[in-house]
Design brief:
- The complex is a heterodimer of chains A (132) and B (66).
- Chain A has 132 residues and is an all-alpha fold.
- Chain A has 6 helices and no strands.
- Chain B has 66 residues and is mainly alpha-helical.
- Helices cover 56% and strands 6% of the residues of chain B.
- Chain B contains 5 helices and 2 strands.
- In chain B, strands 1-2 form a two-stranded antiparallel ribbon.
- The radius of gyration of chain B is 11 Å and the shape is globular.
- Classes of the chains: A mainly alpha (132), B mainly alpha (66).
- At the A-B interface, helix 5 of A face helix 3 of B.
């Protein structure tokens, strides 16, 4: 059954809009941080990325990443890719945390990131087990 | 998991794109199902079976089926 969320994520405008919105957020943050040139570069880059998604043509990868090609197979691909990405990220965070404390530092911010990831995973497993 | 989707589609003289449109999935997904690279969800398998007026087990075969 298609939900409103499905319709939003499968719209051809979803990823271009998200890209430009992220670009605007980069511009605002960079401007606030005193580096507007970086912000303009970030907005330009994200706008170009949004245009690639919008005008991606027949590429299944772009269509899936961009929204319109997101059927159940793509959602399975997306889920596995997200899990793989998360695993790599966690390994990097743990490795970098060990490197930091091995060099006499307190491990920040990797200790906090690792803790957030660990707690989030356990809570997610508990909720998903309860719901299934 | 093996299946008879390609044979049934050919018999019905449908293109992958036409079947994909009827199932609300991409043409690539139909191709992946036909080649056995993707096992569809139960709802999609049931929709395919209904579309071809067959039972699910008539279309999809486990690897250890005769």
């Amino acid at each position: 059954m298609e939900t409103t969320m499905h319709r939003v994520f499968r719209s051809r405008w979803w990823m271009p809009t998200f890209s430009v919105a992220l670009g605007v957020a980069i511009l605002v943050a960079a401007w606030a941080g005193g580096d507007p040139a970086f912000g303009v570069f970030g907005l330009g880059l994200m706008t170009a990325l949004g245009a690639v998604f919008l005008l991606g043509g027949r590429s299944e990868t772009l269509s899936g990443l961009g929204g319109p090609g997101r059927d159940e197979r793509w959602e399975a691909i997306d889920l596995r890719a997200t899990a793989g990405t998360g695993l790599v990220l966690i390994c990097v965070v743990i490795g970098t945390w060990l490197w930091e404390i091995g060099h006499g530092h307190d491990g920040s911010p990797y200790s906090q990131l690792g803790a957030i990831a660990g707690v989030t995973y356990v809570v997610a497993v508990a909720i998903l087990r309860w719901r299934s | 998991m093996r299946n008879d989707i390609r044979m049934l589609r050919d018999t019905a003289e449908l293109s992958q794109g036409q079947l994909a449109e009827a199932m609300s999935v991409s043409r690539q997904t139909i191709n992946s199902i036909e080649t056995g690279r993707y096992t569809p969800s139960l709802p999609l398998a049931m929709a395919l079976a209904r579309f071809f007026d067959r039972a699910v087990e008539e279309i999809f075969h486990g690897d250890d089926d005769a």
